[in-house]
Design brief:
By secondary structure, this protein is α+β, with helices and mostly antiparallel strands. It is built from 9 helices and 21 strands. The chain has one domain: Kinesin motor domain (Kinesin), CATH 3.40.850.
């Protein structure tokens, strides 16, 4: 059993076309592990400084290779590519999974700030999730031996309006899956969530594509877009090890979480999963109604509870308050992320930052959130037990 801080990375994206058209000003600077943000409204004020495990500059200094992959322009460029981010963060996730630790990787930030780009990626610029899934099976192949047997399975769900939808089936109960608490471990889980075995990377790709399509159907029916739902893909990695003292089972659950965007909605942003896994998704239709309102309140409920959980955990870790109740139960998202936050999981968060002056308030709040997250310490254990 050991204590381990949540690892936090921040990453700043390039200007998008709209920002370029409007002559947006760059308000983010990075230097080593430090990130600086300048308030565009008060000139002359010192920039605010934050420090994280990793600060990724992906704003400029890149070229597009003939393959379409964005790479650093030259050796002197500070540009952080998808591969660089995977090498720092994704490789550890795989290693920890092999060692029998639960892992969680989640992206946080305003809509359009680059969460999905880092997590899933677009086209040939694959993000951490697909590269990690690919790598997992490569390593299984290369470490194959007669004394270890591997089993990999996967679930995919969506939290939308505080309800859990199983994305690997179309017939889930109206009102979503019930979220139950395990009597001994205390962990929350969606009752009856489908967990399907996968034998290789293509299987995973196919399943996630299926899940994306189900999400699309649901989203279309509900007059919504994917950026309003939290998506959780979990990979269950089991190793059956034949040792001198009989057989043991080492398990790891890898949670990959793409959170709904916080802040103002930008309608019409197409889905990351859809692009990568060849699904399709319609842009949101217009017309805000009561449903839309309820929806945004519920997203805020999950995200604001997430904020409260993070603050409570940060207080506990810093020892600044004596009796702190962590309000996991206040939202579906935080119930299901209980282990990832303050529990038995090696957790990594990527905070996605917009470079543009118009997003100053949101970006500053993302940096403050990330600053609290890095203070959280989880207690991790290897999940290894003899097989009875
Ligand atoms: P979010 O998931 O936070 O809503 P996206 O990941 O969809 O945001 O990113 C918004 C846009 O910015 C996309 O067009 C994406 O391709 C682009 N983008 C984001 N991050 C990067 C990056 N690191 N490098 C290049 N383009 C990026
Ligand atoms: Mg997204």
């Amino acid at each position: 059993m050991s204590e381990e801080s949540i690892k936090v990375a921040v990453r700043v994206r390039p200007f998008n076309q709209r920002e370029k058209d409007r002559n947006a000003k760059l308000i983010i600077k990075m230097h080593g592990q430090s990130t600086f943000i300048t308030d565009p409204r008060s000139s002359g004020e010192e920039p605010k400084q934050f420090s994280f495990d990793y600060s990724y500059w992906s704003h400029d200094g890149f070229i597009e290779l003939p393959s379409g992959i964005l790479e650093s322009k030259d050796n002197s460029s500070a540009y952080a590519s998808q591969q660089k981010v995977f090498n720092d963060l994704g490789r550890d996730v795989i290693k920890n999974a092999f060692d029998g630790f639960n892992c969680s990787l989640f992206a946080y930030g305003q809509t359009g700030s680059g969460k999905s780009y880092s997590m899933v990626g677009y086209g040939v610029n694959r993000g951490i999730i697909p590269i990690a899934c690919d790598e997992l099976f490569h390593q299984i192949q290369s470490t194959k031996s007669s004394s270890v047997r591997y089993e990999v399975s996967l679930s995919m769900m969506e939290i939308y309006n505080e309800q859990v939808r199983d994305l690997l089936t179309q017939d889930f109960p109206k009102g979503g899956l019930a979220v139950r608490q395990h009597p001994t471990s205390g962990n929350f889980y969606p009752q009856g969530l489908r967990i399907v075995p996968v034998g290789n990377y293509t299987d995973i790709e196919r399943r996630i594509s299926e899940g994306t399509q189900n999400r699309t159907i649901a989203a279309t029916n509900m007059n919504a877009t994917s950026s309003r739902a939290h998506t959780v893909v979990t990979i269950y990695f089991d190793q059956f090890i034949n040792g001198t003292h009989g057989e043991t089972k080492k398990t790891s659950a890898i949670n990959l979480v793409d959170l709904a965007g916080k802040g103002r909605f930008q309608l019409g942003i197409s889905s990351e999963y859809a692009l990568l896994f060849q699904g399709s998704e319609r842009a949101a239709s217009t017309g805000a109604t009561g449903d839309r309102l309820k929806e945004s309140t519920n997203i805020n409920k999950s995200l604001s509870t997430l904020g409260n959980v993070i603050s409570a955990l940060a207080d506990i870790s810093s020892g600044s308050k004596r009796k702190v109740v962590v309000p996991y139960r206040d939202s579906t998202l935080t119930k299901l992320l209980q282990n990832a936050l303050g529990g038995n999981s090696k957790t990594v968060m990527i905070a996605a930052l917009s470079p543009a002056d118009v997003n100053y308030d949101e970006t500053l709040s993302t940096l403050r959130f990330a600053d609290r997250v890095k203070r959280i310490k989880n207690t991790v254990v290897v999940n290894e037990n003899p097989l009875e």
